[in-house]
């Protein structure tokens, strides 16, 4: 279970949010909403431990994520606006490097299989610099097919994807939730899972509520 209690984040002289609290349990998805600049990406990176909160606490199964350290980071995968892949590496190489950094090394065969499932058959061994933006996004998202983390944090994951890829990613997210995983995401797409599994959190209001 992920618990956020009294979280605040200040960047420079600007308070992005304060007194923010929510809980996410197995089999639930949290949909973050808010205008550009409301702090959605900052919140996601803070929850992952990539940025330091100004106040409050983030707990994973009752323990502070900062005390847990790698025991927490191995249980979370973050895919941000940027794909986080290297242009000089192939899709297979990028996926294997990212998986190793996630603490979940995979074989070359596993990388090929994941990229094929993401619709990249015939492009697996091409340098990523020659891929389209949609294909690069698929390489980044292929991490979800090989990563064993329980918490997925996805910042606009459907960006640059065609209809077929959007449908496939929807099914991956749905399967992860149905198997007891957790997802935090921002998106303008409708997320096609049952309403009971979805929580929503709006950022940018003067008073931030609790979820």
Automatic annotation (TrEMBL):
It comes from the Bacteria. Keywords: ATP-binding, Cytochrome c-type biogenesis, Membrane, Nucleotide-binding, Translocase, Transport. Gene3D superfamilies: P-loop containing nucleotide triphosphate hydrolases. Residues 2-211 form the ABC transporter domain. Pfam families: ABC_tran. InterPro entries: AAA+_ATPase (IPR003593), ABC_transporter-like_ATP-bd (IPR003439), ABC_transporter-like_CS (IPR017871), ABC_transptr_haem_export_CcmA (IPR005895), P-loop_NTPase (IPR027417). This is Heme ABC transporter ATP-binding protein CcmA.
């Amino acid at each position: 279970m992920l618990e956020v209690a009294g979280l605040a984040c200040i960047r420079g002289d600007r308070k992005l949010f304060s007194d923010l609290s929510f809980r996410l349990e197995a089999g639930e998805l949290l949909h973050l909403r808010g205008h550009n600049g409301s702090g959605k990406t900052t919140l996601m990176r803070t929850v992952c431990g990539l940025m330091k909160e100004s106040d409050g606490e983030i707990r994973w199964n009752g323990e502070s994520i900062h005390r847990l350290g790698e025991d927490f980071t191995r249980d979370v995968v973050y895919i941000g606006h940027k794909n986080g892949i290297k242009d000089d590496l192939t899709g297979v190489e990028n996926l294997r490097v990212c998986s190793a950094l996630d603490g979940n090394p995979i074989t070359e065969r596993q990388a090929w299989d994941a990229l094929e499932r993401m619709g990249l058959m015939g492009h697996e061994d091409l340098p990523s610099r020659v891929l389209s933006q949609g294909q690069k996004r698929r390489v980044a998202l292929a991490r979800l097919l090989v990563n064993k983390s329980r918490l997925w944090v996805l910042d606009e994951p459907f960006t640059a994807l065609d209809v077929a890829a959007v449908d496939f990613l929807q099914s991956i997210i749905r399967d992860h939730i149905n198997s007891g995983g957790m997802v935090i995401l921002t998106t303008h797409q409708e997320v096609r899972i049952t309403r009971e599994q979805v929580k929503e959190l709006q950022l940018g209001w003067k008073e931030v509520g609790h979820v």
